[in-house]
């Protein structure tokens, strides 16, 4: 029997035993819990994120293709926008001290740069990833060339780097995203709140790179740094950043299989969110009770609790604030719920949810590697839901 005939969790277990590692030792080397390892090996929890598969393969000292099934070569989800991603990475690696391109071009007024940054954020929030990537090289250039004495220079540069980090994470380029997020932290200077907004992006990047332990420590440290002396009594924009950091830490804890840490961190974020309410978009974070509820769903999926995830999804999407969230945020949540339905063995609902995500923000499904992977799973798992076959054809994922 070839290894391709085994589920990925069983292949992981076979190689773990072959390497003479107990579940606890294996979990320690991965930075995850023994419960996480046990659930993956029993098929209770899906192992469908490439960054995690690569990390597992590294600990087991095997090629990721072996985990994916050596007798069934995995058809990789095509990586769209490769040229645009490369252009953004090239822009990130330009250092002002060495730059010669654009030295003769006039500086763009800060007010105009601000409008460009705002437009890029709005485009990102509508999941216009191709457009955002085409904007980023110039946006990074004009923010870099702002005069040193311009009061808004640091804030605009941080925002540009945050947009780059978020877009590159979406498209599966964790390395480029890490560079962008690190730059955001570096240019924030001595402004603790501005630096904390950059750490929100850094936490997201660290999670995508499989560095959950570091993501928790970094986000919690940044949250404590800006936390008001009297809990819940600070300025709304500061509270929103603090709450967002706690959510990043909670999601990282979920990725590490730490339900106790998740509950504690989300509980703290909930207290802040209740005070703030929904409706404001401080620092492009949209933090509030609804975003906290969506994070709780995402954490449940990560922890291998799909029934809890679906229950939370049904509750939050039945409320008005859900419809006011940016399309990117809603569609990303629907991808999480698609995973939950697949984990429950319900491909029909998974398909309907995926089609809804595509209607909400097509690029979430068609451009993101995770969206394309889920589409491949749904299309190949039982009778095809209306719309799934058409969508698979549109993105060229048909067998």
TrEMBL record:
It holds the Pfam family HTH_31. SUPFAM superfamilies: lambda repressor-like DNA-binding domains, TPR-like. The lineage of its organism: Bacteria, Bacillati, Actinomycetota, Actinomycetes, Micromonosporales. SMART domains: HTH_XRE. Gene3D superfamilies: lambda repressor-like DNA-binding domains, Tetratricopeptide repeat domain. This is XRE family transcriptional regulator. Residues 12-67 form the HTH cro/C1-type domain. InterPro entries: Cro/C1-type_HTH, Lambda_DNA-bd_dom_sf, TPR-like_helical_dom_sf. It comes from Micromonospora fluostatini.
């Amino acid at each position: 029997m070839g290894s391709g005939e085994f589920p990925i969790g069983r292949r992981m277990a076979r190689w773990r035993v072959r390497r003479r590692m107990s579940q606890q030792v294996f979990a320690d080397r991965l930075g995850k819990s023994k419960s996480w390892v046990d659930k993956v090996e029993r098929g209770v929890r899906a192992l469908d994120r490439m960054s995690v598969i690569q990390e597992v393969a590294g600990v087991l000292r095997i090629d990721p293709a072996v985990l994916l099934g050596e007798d069934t070569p995995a058809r990789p989800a095509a990586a769209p926008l490769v040229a645009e991603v490369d252009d953004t990475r090239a822009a990130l690696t330009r250092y002002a001290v060495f730059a010669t391109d654009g030295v003769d071009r006039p500086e763009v007024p800060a007010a105009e740069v601000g409008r460009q940054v705002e437009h890029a954020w709005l485009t990102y929030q509508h999941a216009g990833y191709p457009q955002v990537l085409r904007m980023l090289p110039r946006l990074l250039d004009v923010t870099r060339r702002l005069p040193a004495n311009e009061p808004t220079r640091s804030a605009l540069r941080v925002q540009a780097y945050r947009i780059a980090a978020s877009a590159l994470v979406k498209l599966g380029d964790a390395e480029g995203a890490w560079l962008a997020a690190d730059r955001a932290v570096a240019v924030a200077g001595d402004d603790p709140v501005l630096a904390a907004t950059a750490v929100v992006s850094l936490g997201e990047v660290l999670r995508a790179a499989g560095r959950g332990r570091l993501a928790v420590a970094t986000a919690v440290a940044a949250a404590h740094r800006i936390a008001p002396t009297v809990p819940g009594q600070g300025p709304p924009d500061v509270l929103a950043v603090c709450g967002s950091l706690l959510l990043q830490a909670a999601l990282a804890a979920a990725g590490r299989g730490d339900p106790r840490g998740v509950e504690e961190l989300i509980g703290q974020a909930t207290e802040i969110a209740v005070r703030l309410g929904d409706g404001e978009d401080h620092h492009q974070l949209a933090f509030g009770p609804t975003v906290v509820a969506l994070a709780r769903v995402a954490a449940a999926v990560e922890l291998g609790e799909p029934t809890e995830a679906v229950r939370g999804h049904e509750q939050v999407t039945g409320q008005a604030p859900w419809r006011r969230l940016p399309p990117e945020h809603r569609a990303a949540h629907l991808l999480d719920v698609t995973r939950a339905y697949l984990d429950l063995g319900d491909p029909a609902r998974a398909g309907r949810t995926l089609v809804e995500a595509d209607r909400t923000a097509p690029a979430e499904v068609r451009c993101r590697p995770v969206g394309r992977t889920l589409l491949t799973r749904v299309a190949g798992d039982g009778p095809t839901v209306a719309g799934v076959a058409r969508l698979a054809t549109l993105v060229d994922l048909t067998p």
